[in-house]
Design a protein that fits this description.
six-stranded mixed β-sheet; 8 strands; globular; 5 helices; two-stranded antiparallel ribbon; about 170 residues; alpha+beta
Length: about 170
């Protein structure tokens, strides 16, 4: 897990230089995570969420880079275990420490940001999160080597205190 976290942290820091890149990493337990993070798709989704909020009389969310890292990690993790529970059996929010309210949307299999957000609009729970009383959003998009896209929204009403909160546990 520590090696995976280090690799993802280094790669995420290249966001300014790259819009998509390939990741090959092993979790401590030997689980291979292979695929591509797509920052262009993530940026487009933030715009779509904010357009939807404005259409519904709400203010735009701040695209928070401190939520980008945990969202990208969650997207990669969902390629291993598609759930709000992380592959190490911890709740999804243990990927970070935060202040205030928090929510996560997850989906997989959609081929474009439009297709993904259109599906979220039709889901009561996902729509409630997008229109919720939050101030910040981070989006993760990960495509595995089979071409399946994993789409993650992380919403919070407060600041992120730290990411990659270590539990000392490995994926099982």
């Amino acid at each position: 897990m520590k090696n995976l976290i280090k690799i993802i942290a280094v790669l995420t820091s290249l966001v300014i230089l790259l819009s998509a890149f390939t990741v090959v990493a092993y979790a401590e337990s030997g689980i291979l995570i292979r695929g591509t993070f797509n920052f262009d798709y993530a940026n487009e989704i933030v715009g779509r969420i904010n357009d939807y909020r404005v259409m519904n009389g709400l203010s735009k969310l701040k695209y928070d880079c401190s939520l980008l890292e945990p969202a990208m990690i969650r997207a990669a993790e969902c390629s291993i275990k598609f759930s709000h529970t992380r592959p190490n059996t911890k709740e999804w929010h243990t990927v970070m420490a935060w202040e205030g309210s928090l929510a996560e949307n997850i989906s997989k299999g959609f081929s474009s940001p439009k297709e993904s957000t259109d599906a979220y609009y039709k889901s009561d729970g996902h729509r409630e999160n997008m229109l919720g009383d939050y101030t910040r959003v981070g989006v993760g998009v990960f495509t595995d080597d089979n071409g399946t896209n994993y789409w993650i929204h992380v919403f919070t009403g407060g600041a992120v205190k730290e990411t990659y909160k270590e539990t000392g546990e490995t994926y099982r």
